[in-house]
TrEMBL record, chain B:
This is DUF1468 domain-containing protein. Keywords: Membrane, Signal, Transmembrane, Transmembrane helix. The chain crosses the membrane at residues 44-61, 81-109, 121-140. The lineage of its organism: Bacteria, Pseudomonadati, Pseudomonadota, Alphaproteobacteria, Acetobacterales. Residues 11-145 form the DUF1468 domain. Pfam families: TctB (PF07331). It comes from the Bacteria. Residues 1-24 form the signal peptide.
Automatic annotation (TrEMBL), chain C:
PANTHER family: TRICARBOXYLIC TRANSPORT PROTEIN. This is C4-dicarboxylate ABC transporter permease. It comes from the Bacteria. The chain crosses the membrane at residues 12-36, 42-68, 105-132, 167-187, 250-276, 316-338, 350-368, 380-401, 407-424, 466-487. Residues 17-434 form the DUF112 domain. InterPro entries: DUF112_TM.
Length: 311, 155, 495
């Protein structure tokens, strides 16, 4: 991209020790949003590892669009890293003028929060089979975030893999509202992170039917995964770091090692544990890159099928 | 008395113009994807526009009170200068950064406002800028625009 | 009871007490600054509180939250710049009072009614949180739609010099609320391809523009000629007489604020606006409204601080945040290893009561500080306008830019400033516009969600008793003045 091209001579010049100045962490979340908190938790121990200050830059507009633009406006020298979520990938797909997925280098994963398919306590769906059978008879009402958002893609992929009628998305403003409407009986089911519905799961007001994780979750040993049921779909809320393409390889490696070290410290570990996220959330660029690649593909297919891709 | 006429028709015309522009704007929205249930994207805004039209018509028919000199004094040259300074704040921020633009603005508008000696204005501008910088940048660590000058100094 | 005493005992720990005091002072300060809200501060301080341990950390953050809502009223009253969106209703009457030279009265009444509202809501929280929280589950999109209509139905009556102008301003607010990506279709509306607009028009820049910048431009236009007369009693704080006058408003505000705050989808700003409406509706001095009514300060201030305790209800009892700020407090609790939910009331009652006790303490602290400092703050009106108003403008710029670090927000603020200026000169009031903007998005969204849930069948509303009851209240409120006039005419004719 343009930013990378302009910055090339500067990054060649900068052969001295890296990092040489404050590292900016760009996020699309407002101060206090879930992703913002992830960034700030990582940053508690990062300055000690890198011997440099860290600064969160919140660029909230356009579901990640502005954050991507901000990143592209910075030299590709590793001093600006972006906290990427699946939202960014969908925004890129829908806006070809933005820096695309191919313009980013994955560095390290920060969180991978699996999702569960939940129903309320007195729901007629007692088993996963009940849900799938009913879904073949009529379109199920799924709660989720906005049309064309990450939940929409996951729900669409779930519906297709399970061979049910295309689910009806009832869009809400966030996880809390989805949980309330699920308990209140306004929707049939929803795909939710366990942390968001922790109180309701513990009180037995909501029941998990299917887990969208790769393997069985420790906290939900007896909840079958979709894959076990022959529904080939996974659902995670992913957050992780990327840098702009053109960043020198040695710096990417240094960032990867350093960020993983910072996120292996006690503060970040206890943050993961207390928010009910898997301790193996932190992963290197191999795993993280592959996962982003997969979602990029799924997202494109889903948006195309839903008629949400322009041009 | 210049202001002694019914101002309502003019206000109503402005309201109707905004409603018309917004109504026209709804025709440029992207199409709603196939197969989504519920109301579309254009229905509600169009309803509000129609409502605005109706209200504008009612307002035009009503006799309004002309605004008196006390309620809305004439805008003099100094006021226009201050308005201009407010508008110029944005480009000034782009060039000199927010910490350059603030003291300039404080002294400039303060001078036009009058009654306060220039020396006090300058001292106040310096003190206030320093205090704001301390609070927002040092304590709360907000990143505020540093402008081209700021960028040149490596911020 | 034992747990409650245990909670109080925790508060006697000097370290915890110090944290509450510190949180209160910080909260008033950031609340008063436009651009840094309580929620921003809490988010920025969150990583720092990890080392404190759960109880001091939660007490500290809770105190900031309580005090910031009060702090917002200081700048709202003194320079018409609501330091926090929830203080916008306070600015409507409070700034008019300051112009009349009653800044001290307004500030003092704000402190008193804020504290009463805050304490009322914490008491409700202590006794009825789990019960009240269940109500959240009964409120789905159809019920919120009915509630939002109720809020909007009062638009014609508030502010401005004619009902038609008020309705026009409200409709503009509704139109503004449609800007951005439509939740239920994903379509971008009125964004002109700008990413800055796709998340919609934020309250903060519009509020700061309409109130503070609009006022600054107006002051610039009337700078020559009649200088503002400053009354000597600017520093007088309210006494028993004022308190008695506002008694009813405070209780109305406290009740409405607690209930609205407890609904997860509605926050302190809505609570304050509806509190303002209802205060006016039930006031015996309706004619004072719009000209600096002390009841118009007491009602919304009680409401927005009661909403603080109210929004802690779903946060603590359901683990679902009741506002942007409680979302961060929830994150803070979770990071500390506290998992909110119904079980919290049985498993960790001491911690819970420590939170309640610290909120009570914070409310007391800012009551005394507020009353004491009212005299001091009231002297802001003695600052020469040539220094005051340019400084307000500068603060407004930072305030609009700060939360999202977006130049687009600054532009929106300037445009809103021009609109606010024109409003002042043509007899429009910003109040209905703000009602429209705050509730407009909700009216449209909840209507569309309801229709999706009902399968495009409007008659689905008939199966929702709470929504029907709210529709009935709205209709009664709208029709009652007409009916009562008819009755009076009929009675006069008979006599």
């Amino acid at each position: 991209m343009l930013g990378a091209g302009l910055a090339a001579p500067r990054s060649l010049r900068a052969q001295e020790a890296f990092p040489s100045r404050t590292i900016e962490v760009v996020t699309h979340a407002g101060v206090g949003g879930g992703t913002d908190i992830t960034a700030r938790m990582m940053m508690v121990q990062a300055p000690g590892v890198f011997k440099q200050e860290f600064l969160v830059v919140n660029r909230t507009a356009g579901s990640g669009a502005q954050a991507l633009q901000y990143l592209a406006s910075k030299p590709a020298d590793g001093h600006a890293i972006i906290l990427v979520t699946q939202t960014h990938l969908l925004t890129q797909l829908r806006n070809p003028s933005l820096p695309q997925f191919a313009d980013l280098i994955p560095v390290a994963r920060a969180t991978a929060d699996p999702q569960l398919v939940l129903v309320r306590r007195d729901s007629p769906f007692r088993t996963p089979q009940d849900l799938v059978e009913a879904g073949k008879q009529r379109s199920l009402r799924f709660g989720g975030t906005h049309v064309g958002g990450v939940d929409h893609v996951t729900i669409f992929a779930f519906g297709r893999a399970a061979g049910i009628q295309r689910p009806t998305l009832v869009p809400f403003r966030g996880g809390g509202e989805i949980v309330i409407n699920l308990v209140g009986g306004n929707i049939d089911t929803a795909v939710v992170n366990p942390g968001e519905a922790e109180a309701q799961l513990r009180a037995g007001e909501l029941r998990p039917l299917i887990s969208l994780a790769e393997g069985r979750l420790d906290a939900f040993r007896d909840v079958p995964t979709a894959k076990e049921l022959g529904i080939d779909v996974t659902g995670y809320t992913l957050r992780g770091f990327c840098v702009l393409k053109g960043t020198p390889e040695d710096r990417v490696a240094k960032l990867e090692a350093g960020l993983i070290e910072a996120m292996s410290g006690p503060i970040y570990k206890s943050y993961l544990q207390n928010t009910g996220q898997a301790p193996d959330s932190v992963a290197g660029r191999q795993v993280w890159g592959a996962q982003l690649e997969q979602f990029h593909k799924d997202g494109r297919e889903a948006l195309q099928a839903l008629g949400l891709l322009r041009g | 008395m210049r202001a002694a006429r019914n101002p309502n028709p003019a206000i109503a015309a402005a309201v109707a113009a905004v409603a018309a522009a917004a109504f026209a704007g709804t025709f440029w929205f992207d199409a709603v994807p196939e197969g989504l249930p519920g109301l579309g994207a254009v229905d509600f805004p169009r309803l509000v526009c129609v409502l605005l039209f109706g209200l504008a018509a009612l307002l035009a028919l009503k006799q309004g009170n002309p605004s008196s000199e006390e309620e809305a004094p004439r805008i003099d040259r100094g006021a226009w200068l201050i308005f201009g300074a407010c508008l110029l704040f944005l480009p000034a921020m782009e060039i000199a950064g927010i910490w350059g633009a603030i003291p300039l603005f404080l002294v400039f508008t303060g001078t036009i406002w009058g009654e306060v000696p220039l020396r006090t204005l300058v001292l106040n501008a310096i003190g206030l800028t320093a205090a704001l910088w301390l609070v927002f940048v040092r304590v709360f660590q907000l990143t505020l625009p540093s402008g081209w000058l700021g960028a040149a100094f490596g911020y | 009871m034992e747990a409650f005493l245990g909670g109080l005992a925790i508060l006697l720990d000097p370290y915890v007490m110090l944290m509450v005091l510190l949180g209160t002072v910080l909260g008033i300060f950031v609340g008063a600054l436009p651009g840094i809200s309580g929620s921003t501060t809490i988010a920025l301080l969150l990583p720092m509180t990890i080392a404190m341990g759960p109880i001091p950390a939660i007490c500290f953050l809770g105190a900031i939250y309580c005090a910031a809502n009060f702090g917002g009223s200081i700048t709202a009253i003194m320079v018409n710049a609501p330091g926090d969106p929830s203080a916008s209703a306070t600015a409507l009457e409070g700034y008019k009072m300051a112009e009349k030279g009653q800044a001290g009265l307004a500030l003092g009444m704000s402190a008193v009614s804020s504290a009463i509202g805050g304490i009322f809501s914490v008491v409700v929280l202590i006794f009825a949180a789990p019960m009240l929280a269940r109500a959240a589950y009964s409120f789905g999109p159809p019920e919120y739609f009915a509630l939002a209509l109720f809020g909007l139905s009062m638009c014609a009556a508030i502010g401005g010099d004619s009902a038609i102008k008020n309705l026009i301003a409200a409709a503009f607010g509704l139109l503004l609320a449609t800007v951005g990506m439509d939740l239920t279709t994903g379509v971008e509306r009125f964004t002109f391809g700008s990413y800055e607009l796709s998340d919609g028009i934020g309250f903060v820049p519009v509020l700061i523009g309409l109130f503070a910048v609009g006022e600054m431009l107006d002051q610039a236009a009337r700078r020559v000629g009649k200088a503002k007369i400053i009354h000597l009693d600017a520093a007088r704080v309210p006494g028993w007489a004022e308190f008695k006058k506002c008694n009813r408003s405070i209780w109305i505000g406290s009740g409405i604020g607690t209930f609205i705050g407890a609904l997860p989808a509605l926050g302190a700003t809505t609570a304050a606006l509806i509190g303002y409406n209802e205060t006016r509706r039930w006031s015996k001095h309706k004619h004072e409204f719009g000209k600096g009514s002390i009841e118009g300060v007491a009602g919304p201030e009680a409401a927005n601080n009661a909403a603080v305790g109210g929004s802690m209800v779903p946060t603590l009892a359901l683990g679902i945040p009741g506002s942007a700020t409680t979302a961060i407090i929830l994150a803070a609790l979770i990071v500390q290893g506290v998992r909110p939910g119904p079980h919290l009331f049985n498993e960790q009652p001491t911690l819970l009561y420590a939170v309640f006790a610290s909120m009570l303490a914070a409310n007391m602290f800012y009551l005394f500080m507020g009353l004491y400092m009212a005299k001091l703050f009231a002297r802001i009106s003695l600052i020469p306008p040539a220094i005051l108003w340019p400084a307000v403008f500068v603060l407004s710029i930072i305030g609009a830019y700060g939360p999202n670090q977006s130049m687009g927000d600054v532009v929106i603020m300037l445009v809103a400033g021009v609109v606010g200026f024109l409003f002042r000169r043509t007899g429009f009031s910003p109040a209905p516009l703000i009602m429209g903007l705050v509730l407009g998005g909700m009216v449209e969204e909840t209507l569309k969600q309801s229709l999706i849930i009902f399968g495009d069948d409007v008659t689905g509303f008939l199966g929702r008793p709470i929504a029907l009851a709210l529709f009935a209240v709205t209709a009664t409120g709208l029709l009652w003045p007409v009916v009562s006039r008819l009755l009076r005419v009929a009675r006069a004719a008979r006599a």
